[in-house]
Amino acid sequence: MAMPRRAMKDLGFQACCLRCDAQDVSGSQRCRSCISHHKKVRDIIAKSSPSDELFQLAKDLLAMAASPNRYDHDEAHGPALREQQRLANSLAEAKPLPTEEDINQLFATQAKREKTSVVQTVGNQNPWRDELPPEEVLEYMSEALEVEDIEYGARTIPSRPIAAVDRSDRLGEDREMVDKIEAGRAASDAPEPLKEVVEAATIAQRERDRAEWEGAQSEVSELLDDDLDL
């Protein structure tokens, strides 16, 4: 087991370092060969066709390996992803817990900070904060606050009936845009070289989930139609 190299983490293959049987020596020939090979693998996966099921599986696995904490609930790969996180945590330096003295010092430092309020600061700049303004100022303010009479007009009555619009094909949302937003959110924590891969995998997964849901809805509708003889 070796400490994951930065290049391997950026590629999303830090799991390989955690399971490596070579000596933990940074910059070794073994490290250079692995990094070079996995760069080629990453580029092939990133340039693959979205419709290729094999490469889609590779994208899904790469996304899981790059961010195991996001997918450790997966039924098939969850145990391996949790083990990957355990191995990574075993190499991390343990941070000492704060002592009572540290906590007291933190509270003392916070107590010394001057608390400011934007509203109070602006209010203190008001020349009439302690007394009423002069009479002429009050009259000017009263005139400025008078309510204006606004006529909004009459309701438009169409001269002929307006046909109803068929909105059956309107889904109520832009699914492509929503998929892109969710994919961008999922890829926000991924390394820069893997963002496109994670986004593509997320979009494909959402499309598959949506297709399965629509298929289930269709089957339920058919069952109801059969039962009700519709």
In words, what does this structure look like?
- The structure is a single chain.
- The chain is mainly α.
- It contains eleven helices and no strands.
- Among the domains are: about 5-90, no CATH class; about 175-230.
- The protein has helices at about 5-10, 15-20, 30-45, 55-65, 70, 80-90, 100-110, 120-125, 135-145, 175-185, 195-230.
- The longest helix has about 35 residues, at about 195-230.
- The radius of gyration is 31 Å and the shape is flat.
- The mean pLDDT is about 80.
Shape: flat
Largest sheet at a glance? Answer: none
Structural class: mainly alpha
Order of helices and strands: HHHHHHHHHHH
What fraction, in percent, of the residue positions are helical?
55-70%
How many DSSP helices? Answer: 11
Output mean pLDDT: 82
Tell me the strand percentage band: under 5%
Measured distance between first and last alpha carbons: 64 Å
Low-pLDDT windows of residues: none
Please tally the β strands and state the result. Answer: 0
Global Rg = 31 Å
